[in-house]
């Protein structure tokens, strides 16, 4: 079986379960993000893949070979961690070629390879510099080049961009993703930043505070069809409304009953559900209007940040947020009467 396969992986540290029952596949050449809040087990899962922790249960297979007990140094994986740990006493080129030197690769070949890698990470001519003479982003690129020097079978990155400021971080996300696509290298990236995951990943594995995988899918699948309320709240912003499923397949939320298009498998009439509706799916009309899935209310706040506009409403005690572009901005001000419309197709019904 090509790629990486994790089978029923669990990790306990004494009484703490850090990772619970994870089974998943990372196909060859893809970039997969482990995404979740602090403490959900992302790093522990990555460290087990790297061979730095041993699973308490389960198996790890790479291209069909069981590597669960293989020591880290024999796996030939490239790793970049949050704390970069470049060697400060070595030059950029020596840092990049370090793993080749300990593998006894001849000097000429080491030089050729580090020049090639410096080209790849857009730092040609920087080989002779000291690490302290580099900016944060350049150090990051050197750490990436160093991890790629051994032509790794897997590229593992743990929050590699978290030390960078917001703008550089966004630039590096694109750069790293383009590099990964160009090399076609199977990559796992750990992050708690959903925007970073959505920018970079082919697949996202969302882990929760219960240390389980809640959902695996493409970024847009996860955004549009979250598996549960945790995922809906963690990926992007969403209006999460507690409700109850009626006999007719409609959902009652507060004092209104809404038509929806799809129900979760096994949902029974009378059961509690959570309705998830993304802000950008909710048009707001001026005044109190009646109609299917209309929620009349009042504007409590308008957040206009130039590139996007959020209208916050109080609809009969229910807080609703709608988002639009400046072009479609409804002409509404704080205190105005307004109606939020929840289109049936945009109402994602989740088990409560
Ligand atoms: P963060 O984003 O904060 O780095 P994470 O999702 O990567 O979090 P992990 O570092 O994998 O989470 O930790 C998962 C759980 O396992 C946490 O409750 C943590 O305290 C615990 N844990 C991790 N390593 C150890 C260890 N060596 N000994 C005991 N508990 C540990």
What does this molecule look like?
With 352 residues, the protein is α+β, with helices and mostly antiparallel strands. It folds into two domains: 4-229, Rossmann fold (3-Layer(aba) Sandwich); 238-351, Beta Barrel (OB fold (Dihydrolipoamide Acetyltransferase, E2P)). It has eight helices and 20 strands. It has helices at 42-50, 92-101, 107-120, 136-148, 166-183, 194-200, 219-224, 229-234, and strands at 4-13, 16-26, 31-35, 57-62, 65-66, 77-80, 154-158, 187-191, 203-207, 213-217, 239-245, 251-253, 256-258, 272-277, 284-286, 294-304, 309-315, 318-324, 337-341, 348-351. The chain has a six-stranded mixed beta sheet, sandwiched between helices. Strands 13-12-11-14-20 form a five-stranded antiparallel beta sheet. A five-stranded antiparallel beta sheet has the order 15-19-16-17-18, with no helix packed on it. Strand 4 and strand 5 form a beta hairpin. Helix 2 (92-101) crosses helix 3 (107-120) and helix 2 runs parallel beside helix 4 (136-148). The radius of gyration is 25 Å and the shape is elongated. Bound molecules: adenosine-5'-triphosphate. Adenosine-5'-triphosphate binds next to strand 2 and helix 1.
Strands, helices and their partners?
Elements: E1 4-13, E2 16-26, E3 31-35, H1 42-50, E4 57-62, E5 65-66, E6 77-80, H2 92-101, H3 107-120, H4 136-148, E7 154-158, H5 166-183, E8 187-191, H6 194-200, E9 203-207, E10 213-217, H7 219-224, H8 229-234, E11 239-245, E12 251-253, E13 256-258, E14 272-277, E15 284-286, E16 294-304, E17 309-315, E18 318-324, E19 337-341, E20 348-351
Parallel strand pairs: 3-8, 3-9, 6-7, 7-8
Antiparallel strand pairs: 1-2, 1-4, 4-5, 9-10, 11-12, 11-14, 12-13, 14-20, 15-19, 16-17, 16-19, 17-18
